[in-house]
Design goal:
- The protein has about 150 residues and is an alpha/beta fold.
- It folds into 2 domains: about 70 residues, no CATH class; about 60 residues, Signal recognition particle alu RNA binding heterodimer, srp9/1 (2-Layer Sandwich), CATH 3.30.720.
- Helices cover about 25% and strands about 25% of the residues.
- It has a 4-stranded mixed β-sheet with strand order 4-7-6-5.
- The longest helix is centred in the C-terminal third of the chain and has 17 residues.
- It is globular, with a radius of gyration of 18 Å.
């Protein structure tokens, strides 16, 4: 049997700092802390000799307790052109059903749209296969679902 391995989800994007800040608000996971001895990432990157124009090449968020998956955002030159083959489902209404669930998803959708997300469509519950969800896009067009 293969040993259990840690992994991270990597998101290609144009603005890693802004997209990491958006997902921090969505998931409640903080930005990764700078290395010990540095007050912030800009100070650390300057110390490492990273030029100013390269200091937004990457960013990451993770659960400080280490329980969740780390999400790494990396700058790429090309824009998004097609639908994601992999997407995140943000569990915004666990344990809720019916109209109570959909109302909770709508409230979270409204909050995320105010942060820069886009609403794509609402899928109504279709028991027993689906409890209903809302398809959204982050500020760079990456699809995710409120589930």
């Amino acid at each position: 049997m293969t040993e259990l391995r840690e992994f991270q989800v990597t998101v290609d994007c144009a603005d890693p700092g802004a997209l990491a800040a958006f997902w921090t608000e969505v998931l409640g996971m903080p930005l990764d802390a700078p290395p010990p001895g540095f007050d912030d990432w800009d100070q650390a990157l300057a110390s490492f000799g990273v030029p100013q124009e390269r200091r937004n090449d990457a960013s990451a968020i993770s659960d400080p307790a280490g329980a969740g998956v780390r999400i790494f955002f990396q700058k790429v030159p090309e824009g998004k052109t097609v639908k994601n083959r992999l997407h995140l489902d943000v569990r915004a209404a666990p344990g809720l059903e019916g109209e109570e669930r959909m109302a909770a998803l709508e409230a979270e959708c409204e909050r995320l749209v105010a942060l820069g997300a886009g609403r794509v469509e609402r899928r109504e519950p279709e028991p027993p296969l689906s409890a209903g969800f809302i398809v959204m896009q982050d500020p760079e067009g990456n699809e995710f679902c409120l589930d």
